[in-house]
Amino acid sequence: MTDEKMLDLILRKARSHGDFSERPVPEDALRAAHELMKWGPTSANSQPMRILYLRSKESREKLRPALSATNLDKTMKAPLVALIAHDLRFWENLPRMFHNPQAITWFKDKGAHTEVTAFRNGTLQAGYYLLALRAAGLDCGAMSGFDNAKADAVFFPDGRCKSNFLVNIGYGTGQGLAPRNPRLTFEETCRFV
C-alpha cells in the first residue's frame, strides 16, 4: 500500500460508521491496532487510556441504560463496542515507563492536575487508537452520546477509571452514511502570532 492509500484509509476517505456487518471482530486486529496506537506520544509517557471491550450481549445490556436514544440501536447491533476510559492512577506505571522515575511525584496525590492529565492524554491516545483501528482494517464509529456516570457506576465502580467515549467497531456496511461534511480550512483554524 502506498503512503497515499494509507492516508486515504485512515483519514481522507475514512468515515464514521453506524452500521456494521455481522462479521465478528478478530482479537488479532485489535492487538494490531494496539501495537500501532501504543507508540503515540503522551506527556511523561503516561499512557492513561484504558479500553474495556464489550463483546457479550450481557455486557452490552449493562450499557443499555446509559445510551442515548440516538446511539442505542447502532451500539446494541455493533459487533464490538469499546468503552474508552482513562486511569486516574496512571502514575503508578511511571517508574517503569518514563526515564525519570521521580515523575510519579508529579501526579501522585495531585488531584485535579492528575485528572486533567489523565483525561487529556487518554483522549490523545484515543485519537491514535481510532487511526490505528482503521489502519488495522477495521471501521469504527466514535460517540459521546451516553451517560458517563451511569456507565462508570456499572463498569468502573471503584472510581479508578473514568469513561470518556464509546467506539463501535467492526466492518462497516456503508449503509446510512450521510454525505461527507466539509472541513474548516487552514485559514479558518490557524493563525500565526
Could you characterize the architecture of this molecule?
The chain is an alpha+beta fold. It has one domain (17-172): NADH Oxidase. Helices cover 42% and strands 15% of the residues. It has nine helices and four strands; from the N terminus they run H-H-E-H-H-E-H-H-H-E-H-E-H. The protein has helices spanning 3-12, 27-37, 57-63, 69-77, 94-97, 104-107, 112-135, 148-155, 186-189, and strands at residues 49-54, 80-87, 139-143, 161-170. A four-stranded antiparallel sheet has the order 1-2-4-3. The chain is globular and about 50 Å long. 30% of the residues are buried. The model has no long low-confidence stretch (mean pLDDT 95).
List keywords for this structure.
193 residues; alpha+beta; NADH Oxidase; 4-stranded antiparallel β-sheet; 9 helices; 42% helix; globular
Give a topology summary.
Blueprint: H1 3-12, H2 27-37, E1 49-54, H3 57-63, H4 69-77, E2 80-87, H5 94-97, H6 104-107, H7 112-135, E3 139-143, H8 148-155, E4 161-170, H9 186-189
Antiparallel strand pairs: 1-2, 2-4, 3-4
Helix pairs in contact: 1-7, 2-7
Helix content: 40-55%
Main-sheet strand order equals 1-2-4-3
Mean of pLDDT = 95
Question: Which blocks of ≥5 consecutive residues have pLDDT under 50?
Answer: none
Name given to the CATH architecture: 3-Layer(aba) Sandwich
N-end to C-end Cα span? 39 Å
Count of extended strands: 4
CATH H level: which superfamily? NADH Oxidase
Principal-axis shape: globular
H/E element sequence: HHEHHEHHHEHEH
- Gyration radius (Cα, Å) is 18 Å
Q: At the first level of CATH, what is the class?
A: Alpha Beta
Question: What is the percentage of strand-forming residues?
Answer: 15-25%
CATH fold call = NADH Oxidase
Class derived from helix and strand content: alpha+beta
Largest sheet: 4 strands, antiparallel
| Number of structurally distinct domains | 1
Number of helices: 9
